[in-house]
Amino acid sequence: MNRRDVVRALTASIGWSAVATTAGLALSACGEGGKKPIFTGIDITGAQYATSFSLKDADGQPRTLGDYKGKVVVLFFGYAQCPDACPTTMAELSQVKQKLGADANRLQVLFVTLDPARDTPEVMKAYVGAFDPSFVALIPEPDQLPGVAKDFKVFYKKVDGPTPTSYSMDHSVGSYVYDPQGRVRLYERYGVGADAVAADVEALLKQG
């Protein structure tokens, strides 16, 4: 499955619900007469998916969204041997943190591996640390991964390589963004750019 097929699969799972949610918010804003932030990301406030998790980090410590209350959380699914989307997104999020200036410590990036067989704690700690020492890797147990992916509407598929260990993973390439209260608010599309994501993060920080 090529990248275009992955994007289509993601759009099918998230697109219409996101559009409906956004439309509902727009009508509500008109009725209340109040100004709502204009986000670059898809506004999925009130979504009934991607709302929580309980996963171990690279140190074996259980983590939940509650651990990061008071921060904007950006959560991305990928794998360490990903050749393109994953390192591009992580580098972009590193730039986002730099653009936040004094508010940089109010952003928490979480990277959830879709390849726990190869992405050991040591591998993941080194991988996320190469982009920023504050980034946290989360490692689902192999039997836990399908449920987590379903809860977050994440598409992933193993693509066999020439050897048993040289496979790749096709997967969704967007990021979920949570406000400082731990509520899922946005879905950032792949490649939108650090400036756009930073502006969305700043808007959520101002809301509190």
Please sum up the structure shown.
36% of the residues lie in helices and 20% in strands. The protein is α+β, with helices and mostly antiparallel strands and 208 residues long.
Topology:
Layout: H1 3-32, E1 42-43, E2 55-57, E3 62-63, E4 72-78, H2 85-99, E5 107-113, H3 121-129, E6 136-139, H4 145-151, E7 156-159, E8 168-171, E9 175-178, E10 184-188, H5 194-207
Parallel strand pairs: 4-5, 5-6
Antiparallel strand pairs: 1-10, 2-3, 2-6, 4-9, 7-8, 9-10
Notes on the structure:
There is one protein chain. The chain is α+β, with helices and mostly antiparallel strands and 208 residues long. 36% of the residues lie in helices and 20% in strands. The protein has helices at residues 3-32, 85-99, 121-129, 145-151, 194-207, and strands spanning 42-43, 55-57, 62-63, 72-78, 107-113, 136-139, 156-159, 168-171, 175-178, 184-188. The strands form two sheets. Strands 1-10-9-4-5-6-2-3 form an eight-stranded mixed beta sheet, sandwiched between helices. Strands 7-8 form a two-stranded antiparallel ribbon. A hairpin with a 4-residue loop joins strand 2 and strand 3 (62-63). Helix 2 (85-99) crosses helix 5 (194-207). It is globular and about 55 Å long. The model is unreliable at 1-33 (pLDDT under 50).
